[in-house]
Amino acid sequence: MTMFTKRKSGGVWRKAVCLGLLFFLLAGCEGGQQEKVEQDRLIRLDNLRQLPAGQVEPDSQSLRIGVGAILSPQGTALSYQPLINYLGRKMGKPAILVQRKTYQELNDLLARNVVDLGFICTGAYVEGARNGAISLLVVPRINGKTTYRAFVIVPAASPAREFTDLRGKVFAFTDPLSNTGYLYPLSLLQGMGQQPETFFGRTIFTYSHDRSMAAVMEGVADGASVDSLVYEFAVKRNPDIARRTRVIWESRDFGIPPVVVPRTISPERKALLKDLLLGLHQDAEGEKALAVLGVERFVEPEPKLYGF
């Protein structure tokens, strides 16, 4: 995890795009509302509250689909709603989008079988699998690949050319369980014999990759480590992004953020969900839902990509 390569040219961005699998920049990050936007985007760990122990949401005949906070809530709803509607119709029951502020909170819901299906970050999956709470179902294939990278980005006008140039600066992390948004930059620091507290001037947690990118674009942060899929999708939708930020480092390849189920889900429900997702690209309505996400199709997972 400490290996990284320098990216010679980077891309950069402006205000937001409706993201497919992975990007939607918050509206309202303009002008005189800077202080409010910063407050909305940057969430301190010590302000978060876990669900009370033992609390389980009421049973229902609904299909509950949890989506990790890779995107802000607005971006998640726009990107995933067509797929959620499709799965609900195919299963003959209402499908409900379940969101939580942190990756850990969604992992907790999966562990307690409160949600039937989860679209989560790679780091969150590794943590949940180690705890024996969740299992792989399928993974998305994007641009012919089932891997992704971490991009360390800075504002276009920044003098930074490599990760070490961010010493003493403000750095935006995504979530403590985020592979690209926290664990990867942490591994870079550890390889240098540093910790965030000793290397950066200040760190913040944004709790979504689009908010991390917005923090860099708006000058709230001097750098951030983000999901390459989120970043690249955004650049394709809005080339101005490539003129507003720069990528200065890339990680090695990691297993793409997977689709998971609770370990205790019934075999019948697990098989039905898997068949629906694997066959999505063969259905006209399913293809439309995939297009909104920016996904070619869902495929069988390769556990070795996640260290299992």
UniProtKB/TrEMBL annotation:
Record keyword Metal-binding present: no
Listed name of the protein: Phosphate/phosphite/phosphonate ABC transporter substrate-binding protein
An example Gene Ontology biological process: transmembrane transport
Keyword Chloroplast appears in the UniProt entry: no
UniProt-listed PANTHER family: PHOSPHONATES-BINDING PERIPLASMIC PROTEIN
GO cellular component, one term: ATP-binding cassette (ABC) transporter complex
PROSITE patterns: PROKAR_LIPOPROTEIN
Pfam families the record matches: Phosphonate-bd
Family per record: Belongs to the phosphate/phosphite/phosphonate binding protein family.
InterPro entries associated with the record: PhnD
Keyword tags: Signal
